[in-house]
Amino acid sequence: MKKQKVLHYDAFSSVAHKGNPAGVVLNADHLNEDSMQSIAKAVGFNETVFVVKSDNADYRLRYFTPGHKINLCGHATIGSMYCMKSRGFIGEAVNEIKIETNVGVLPIRFETREDNLFVTMKQDEPQFMPFQGSMDALARSMGILSDEIDGTLPIVYGSTGAWTLLVHIKSLASFREMNPNNREFPDILKEKPRTSVHPFCILNDGDQVGMHARHFSSPYSGTVEDAVTGTASGAMGAYYLTYLNKEIDNIDFIVEQGQEINKDGKVYVSVKRNHHGMDVYVSGTGVFIQELDVTYE
């Protein structure tokens, strides 16, 4: 058995033990993929991120759930970049860097908002794919009735770096009743059986748009629910411009997530149309919690 120091950061909140926990391993070049997977399983968070050297960018980030590696993770990116900037690994005068991920090289921006360090990450080009499964079975797997799903809007798989099923829910009240049975997801999500499920609703306050969401993990990931989800929040912004308002060129809004499991967090989303598709950005802050000494094989 071996030991590895892992830093626990909560992302998308400045309040300890809110937002979404991420394991952060700095200077991880000595670890192979099997070791990274073993460490992520031992940590047990939805994602653990490993920061390694890159020939193509300032750093390369590698992401693992307890069950498998993934291409991109929003909260682990925000948490690790907040860690490196706040600890001085990224210089005080440096406001932008680039990270290498499995979806390509992405820009990262740092700024101060109301005395808090905020990290903004660009995500991958949005992609959507129709869901053709049973809406009744999908509703049952989330622990709600099928008429709580808004059938006037499409249920689609969406990705800005990680695929999830976007399900528009009619009422905010439904989210408190949700009790997912993740084991049922692969049989329902026939087009992408390893995908997570992301129910969300629109919160309109005058001209101001907001969204509320929960995120239920694929059973293959080794977790049940993701507290505050960066990549899915970016996909929700692209969904808004694709399916809800095709007339506007950009949208900025806040996603609130985690309230039902006492992990309140906020993701700041900005999406802009460009000549070939959309540019998707998410922003958030973070907070250091503790240093973990993890034993792994």
UniProtKB/TrEMBL annotation:
One of its GO terms (cellular component) is cytoplasm. Signal peptide: none annotated. GO terms for molecular function: isomerase activity. This is Phenazine biosynthesis protein PhzF family. It comes from Anoxynatronum buryatiense. Belongs to the PhzF family. The active site is at E47. Keywords: Isomerase. NCBIfam families: PhzF_family (TIGR00654).
